[in-house]
Structure formats: structure tokens, C-alpha cells
Write a structure and sequence with these properties.
Length: about 525
């Protein structure tokens, strides 16, 4: 009775009344009053009336409410889903929306996109396995957006974000969204700020669900989706970026890189190449955040290669550690590729010379170089001597005497590596420490000239600690008499500057002397070594 008599006559009255308020109210009444199964079995008749309504009727709200009601009906029980398939509900709703949008040429963008959001919500509840339906809705939205020169309506922008977020929320898996060809095309219509916001939503979804992206083609699609975060988009005002927001975005990208992994080395190398291609266009502000993650991904691949059986390092192999290091320009120590590792240090020194002008940054950089070089065991005698000579040379040319002193005594560790096969050149260690002493002396004299009194003696105490360290390690060039003489020198300096006591240096020296006393009392071989030092 409803299908053949009631609904046709009611709709006839609705269409013929020509009053837009009445039409909207009556259509809403029909949708809200009659049962869900009635709407499902009479869907074609009900939808057929929508394009016949007055152009000023808010048809989008009518259709959205209908789809929301049907979506809730589908979610209520799995038993009703065959009914939706039987009546081809998605196809009928999709066609009806298309006709309404075509008929109402002046419908604002937000109205059309709201309809697509409702249709997408409907299909995700009724046909979650039909990704072609999801992509079809996204494609229809792209077609509508392509007719709009620039999407500036904030309400429409929110609806686009809702459209893009729906598949992520439904599937809890970015991999599903990456298979949708129209997904990135919809994102292209977002403004710069909203595009970045959506990119962050995608990354957060990956982190929340611990999703691992394991194929190169999906990584390519993913980085196209988040391109707003990894490079400057035309029209973006870089100067207006909030510093905290920028750091959060880039740290998110860095974390994302660790979620890209494949057990197959060939595929993993492709992934690394794609990540490198996208991140390297990020500019100097972004690279410090993202490059380190890229490097660690490559180093993980290298460990994987080393752990495999068989000859995998031959130059004829399809993938070698050499190729990976050429890609990254990063440390080659782990795979015993000396010429590549040497080239990396050469590049590091070149960057130090040409790019780092700030004195504080120079101090940080030279200590990083020294620390890295100290742990390298890949170099032959000639290459290691060249690099250590450069490191000590740059250390002695830092701007401040105190920085020079600390960098030079740090270089002493380049000549004494406490490993089984490590270098142990006691004479050159002593030369470094003596050079550091001369610099500390010069700093003391300069302070005396400038202030009429001696400078802080903390540098001498720091050098004393280095002497003690190498004395313990068995460096025969470092004698107890040398340590004794340095202690006396420090005491003399402190007494000569009694008017300006340095509490920090005093505490440091007292702690050092207590350590020597402790070693003397410990007995054994170490106790005998320290016994000759008189306090």
C-alpha cells in the first residue's frame, strides 16, 4: 500500500505545491516518519522526486538525512545488508546526488561536498569491502572541485577533510587509503594549511595503528599525500610558520620514516631512494629533522645485508653497501669500505670550512667530528693520520682559547683507542696534552693582562683529569711525575689568585684529588701506580 498508493500520492502533492518551505518540510517528514525498510524498498520513487523540487529547496539536507538514516539502519544489524544489495541502494543514491547537483547549478561547494560525505559514510557502512564505491565517491568530488577555481569556503574545506578522514577512521589502515586513486586528487584541492593538517591526520593514523608501509609504490603515494609537510608548496609563506608547529610536523615526518620497512633488501632500498628523493627537496630547515631518520633506515638495511649469508658485497651484486652509502653519503665504517668513509669525512671537513661561521657551532661540529673519528676502525695508517691531523689543526684554530684547549685535549683520544686492536700511540697523546697545556697557559696569561689577575684554572684541572685517564690506561708516556708537576702548577695558580677564588674549579680539583687518594688506597697494581703521586 505504501509503495503503490501512499508514497506516489504524497510525493505528487509535494511536487505540485511549488512552495519551497512546504516541500522541504514535507520531504523531511516522509523521511523521519516512515520506517527504514519502507525507504529502502521505495528508494527509486523517493529519490526521483528530489530533482523535481523547487531550486531553492535545501535538497542536500533532505538527501543527507535520508542517507544518514539508511546508514544507521545498515549498522543496526548485518541481517539487513542483503536488502541494500538487492535494491542496489548505492547506485541509486549516487545517481540521485549527481542529478541534484546538475539540476542546482548554483548549489554552493559545501552543499555538494556534504552530499558526498553522506554518500561515503553510507557506502562505508553498507559496503565496506567495495573500495571501488569509495573511490567512485572521491572521484565525483574531484569532478565537482575541479570546476571551482579555488576552494576558499572554510565550511567546504572542513567537509573535504571529513571526506578524506572517513576511510582512515573506517579501515584503521592507511594502506587501504593508499589504494584509492582519487584520494590524493581530492587532497590537491585543499589549501596549504588544511593540506598540512590532513597530512598530519594521515601520519597520526599510521602511528596510532602501528601501520608498516612495506612497498615502494605505496611509499611514493604516501609521500605525495604528505608533500605539504616535506617541501614548500607554491604560495606558502615560510616566514609565517609557527616554530613549535613546524617542529612537531617535522618530527612526525621523521617518525613516519621509521614505519617504512620491508624485509627484502631490494625493496627496502627502493623505499629509501623514494624517501631520499622527497625529503632532499625539503630545504635546510627541514633536513636536520628528516635526514637522520633516513640515515638510520639505511644503516638498518646495511646491518641486514651484513647478517645475510653468501657473497652480498661483490660489485656485481644488484645491491651493495657501497651503493647504499653512495646514496646517503654517511658513515661507511660498519661495512669496511674505507674509501667511501674517507670521502664522508672529507665532505664533513669541507662543510666545516665553508658553511659553519658561528663560533659555537664550530665547537659543536669539531667535537662531533673528533668523537666520530675516534670510533672509526676502518682507516689505514695514512688516511687516519691525514684525518687526525686535520681535526687537531681545526681544534687549535677555534676562536676562544678555552674552546681550543678543550678540543685539542679531546684529540688525544684519537691516538689511544681502548679496544683490543685499537691504536695506542702514547707519544702523540702526550703531545696533544702538552699542546693543550700551552693553550691553557696562554689563556691564563691573557686573562692576567686583561683583568690584572689570573683566569680560572678549571682548564688545568680538566687537563689533569686527561692525564690521570691515560695514566690509568697504561700510557707509559704519562708518568706520575708529570701528574705531580701538574697538581703543583694548579696549586700555585690558585694561590697566586687567592683574591678571586673559583669555587667550581676548587670543587673540581678537590674531587680529582679524592679520586687519586682512592686509587692509592685501593691497593693492587693500580694502587702501586698511584702511590708515587704525592698530594
Amino acid at each position: 500500500m505504501y509503495k503503490e498508493t501512499v508514497l506516489p500520492r504524497v510525493l505528487e502533492q509535494v511536487v505540485n505545491c511549488k512552495d519551497d518551505l512546504a516541500q522541504y518540510y514535507l520531504m523531511d517528514c516522509i523521511i523521519q516518519v516512515f520506517p527504514d525498510e519502507y525507504h529502502l524498498q521505495t528508494l527509486e520513487t523517493l529519490l526521483g522526486a528530489c530533482p523535481q523540487l523547487q531550486p531553492t529547496v535545501d535538497v542536500k539536507t533532505v538527501l543527507s538525512r535520508l542517507m544518514d538514516r539508511l546508514s544507521n539502519y545498515a549498522a543496526s544489524s548485518a541481517d539487513v545488508l542483503p536488502e541494500f544489495l538487492q535494491v542496489e541502494a548505492f547506485s541509486k543514491l549516487s545517481n540521485a546526488i549527481g542529478k541534484v547537483i546538475e539540476a542546482q547549478l548554483d548549489m554552493p561547494a559545501v552543499g555538494a561536498i556534504t552530499l558526498y560525505v553522506s554518500l561515503l559514510t553510507f557506502t562505508l557502512r553498507v559496503h565496506p569491502d567495495r573500495l571501488d564505491h569509495v573511490d567512485q565517491v572521491l572521484g565525483a568530488c574531484v569532478k565537482k572541485l575541479s570546476n571551482i577555481p579555488k576552494l576558499e569556503d572554510s565550511r567546504a574545506m572542513k567537509q573535504v577533510v571529513a571526506l578524506l578522514s572517513a576511510p582512515l577512521e573506517k579501515y584503521n589502515d592507511i594502506l587501504t587509503a593508499l589504494t584509492l586513486s582519487n584520494y590524493p586528487r581530492v587532497m590537491d584541492h585543499l589549501d596549504i594549511g588544511t593540506n598540512k593538517l590532513m597530512a598530519m591526520v594521515i601520519i597520526q593514523s599510521i602511528m596510532k595503528n602501528n601501520s608498516c608501509i612495506s612497498t615502494a609504490d605505496k611509499v611514493e603515494v604516501l609521500f605525495e599525500l604528505i608533500k605539504g609537510l616535506i617541501k614548500d608548496i607554491d604560495g606558502a609563506d615560510v616566514d609565517e610558520l609557527d616554530e613549535e608547529d613546524f617542529k612537531e610536523e617535522q618530527n612526525s615526518v621523521a617518525r613516519l620514516i621509521h614505519m617504512l620497512y620491508n624485509d627484502e633488501p631490494e625493496e627496502m632500498l627502493k623505499i629509501i631512494c623514494i624517501v631520499r628523493k622527497h625529503t632532499m627537496v625539503g630545504g635546510p630547515k627541514r633536513l636536520p629533522f628528516t635526514v637522520s631518520s633516513l640515515v638510520f633506515s639505511a644503516l638498518r638495511l646495511l646491518r641486514q645485508l651484513q647478517g645475510q649469508e653468501g657473497d652480498i658485497v661483490g660489485e656485481e651484486a644488484s645491491m651493495t653497501p657501497n651503493k647504499i652509502f653512495q646514496l646517503l653519503t654517511q658513515a661507511a665504517n660498519g661495512c669496511d669500505i674505507e674509501h667511501v668513509a674517507y670521502e664522508f669525512f672529507t665532505q664533513a671537513f669541507l662543510l666545516y670550512e665553508e658553511e659553519i661561521a658561528d663560533s659555537k657551532a664550530q665547537v659543536t661540529a669539531i667535537h662531533l667530528i673528533i668523537g666520530t673519528l675516534q670510533r672509526m676502525n676502518v682507516f689505514g695508517v695514512e688516511n687516519r693520520d691525514t684525518l687526525t691531523h686535520k681535526a687537531t689543526g681545526y681544534s687549535a684554530r677555534l676562536l676562544k682559547k678555552a674552546d681550543q684547549c678543550r678540543a685539542v685535549y679531546a684529540c688525544s683520544h684519537l691516538f689511544w683507542v681502548d679496544d683490543q686492536d685499537g691504536i695506542k700511540d702514547g707519544e702523540r697523546v702526550l703531545l696533544c696534552l702538552k699542546r693543550a697545556l700551552r693553550i691553557a697557559n696562554a689563556a691564563q696569561q691573557m686573562a692576567n693582562v686583561a683583568r690584572g689577575s689570573g683566569g680560572p684554572v678549571s682548564l688545568f684541572v680538566e687537563i689533569l683529569n686527561k692525564y690521570i685517564y691515560f695514566f690509568e690506561k697504561g700510557n707509559k708516556q704519562i708518568t706520575s711525575s708529570a701528574i705531580q708537576g701538574l697538581i703543583e702548577l694548579i696549586n700555585t695558580e690558585m694561590q697566586s689568585d687567592s683574591t678571586n677564588p673559583d669555587s667550581v674549579a676548587d670543587a673540581f680539583l678537590a674531587s680529582t684529588l679524592r679520586y687519586i687518594q682512592f686509587q692509592k688506597q685501593k691497593g693492587g697494581v693500580m694502587g702501586e701506580k698511584f702511590e708515587s703521586i704525592k698530594l
